[in-house]
């Protein structure tokens, strides 16, 4: 029987190997970005900076616009080839910045300004070229020349760039993430421009751009307005400072439930955290350990701080229970969290988080039904001896149930001890133990992992968060009754579990 004292995630292992080496960013998902990184890697320790590559891209882009503006079949094909080259070089400056650490706000602004400038001139040049070949001809049944259509398309795209930049500043890259298929993003359609010019389709491309770009710009404007109207998340230190401020001598005011940030904000934080995850390595680890994985560093600090604030806010609602020989501790169900700590519910429904877990599990995951108090819950170990004995997270659903554990507070000697392959005939049982600190992640198939939490020591505290996802949310009436009774007796108490019957559920 093997014993694994501790498992750490791939990123953590890399950092433990060398504390002085430059951190290696995750491999890009897009093929052109991968090629760009391979080409600029030799430049990482040279005097070449990302701004140099941005300048090269700007020069090539200007040459591209000039070629299109000259008009004619040959110059249009030259412009298309220069466009492909310019679009590819646009990836090199960002990749060099990531692998060399040569980043700056000025460089980022220079890159965005160059993108917008080249794009406006590109479409303007295409319009001028089409106009030069048929002066005075209107491509559309409106009194607008081909040149005017080109500038309309160009400025519409520039507006899109500007608004997407503002959205990214507000909610992060997740708010402006482009659709991707097979390693290619939406913008990569420009790589097909040589085919357009080869078959003399420049005029048709111009008409499509003059119509499509303004329409898409309107969608981005609507998205921009929606994002700017949503509140930003409240920082944990602000809530702590507000709580610590002395009360004014006024009449008592009813306590206000902590405000949950908008769903997109939590999702953006998760999306940024996932950029540093070695998906292939974590997936292999999950499968090799019979649907179990531990990542010591997962949640970003800002999300962890908001979870700590949420855990403190609902502490008065903790339901403590004691089952001799099996369990002792406190719990807060999803129904109470919905009312007093809605940030937890927002995090539970994060599309980025669910997408990551689906990738690990290899199947579609669904939120647990609304009436399930175990869907997301906080577990408090605050008194000496608090623990839970060996058990499986048995699913009463028709499908599988996956458990996600997130560390919130850990000032304890408690360990999550586990046994792998206990239900695999012929497989060697593997024992292990982890102490997951704030921000750590544990993800497993509840019916496969035999596990427990060791007893809490004196003057210690431990709080963890559990998310439950299912593959089929259907459950029989008898199974639902058994599940509710188990949750009422062993976890949340009858009031929290059956509060929908009492007519107090708000979600």
Automatic annotation (TrEMBL):
| Domain of life of the native organism | Bacteria
Occurrences of domain Fe2OG dioxygenase (ranges): 372-471
Residues passing through the membrane, by range: 58-88, 109-130, 142-163, 205-225
**GO molecular function list:** phosphotransferase activity, for other substituted phosphate groups
Its cellular-component GO annotations read: membrane
Is Transmembrane helix tagged as a keyword? yes
Q: Which Pfam families match?
A: CDP-OH_P_transf, HalD
Decide whether keyword Transmembrane is in the record. yes
Per UniProt, the keywords (alphabetical) are: Membrane, Transferase, Transmembrane, Transmembrane helix
Might you name a Gene Ontology BP term for this protein?
A: phospholipid biosynthetic process
Q: Which family does it belong to?
A: Belongs to the CDP-alcohol phosphatidyltransferase class-I family.
- What is this protein called in UniProt? 2OG-Fe(II) oxygenase
Task: Please give the organism.
Answer: Pandoraea commovens
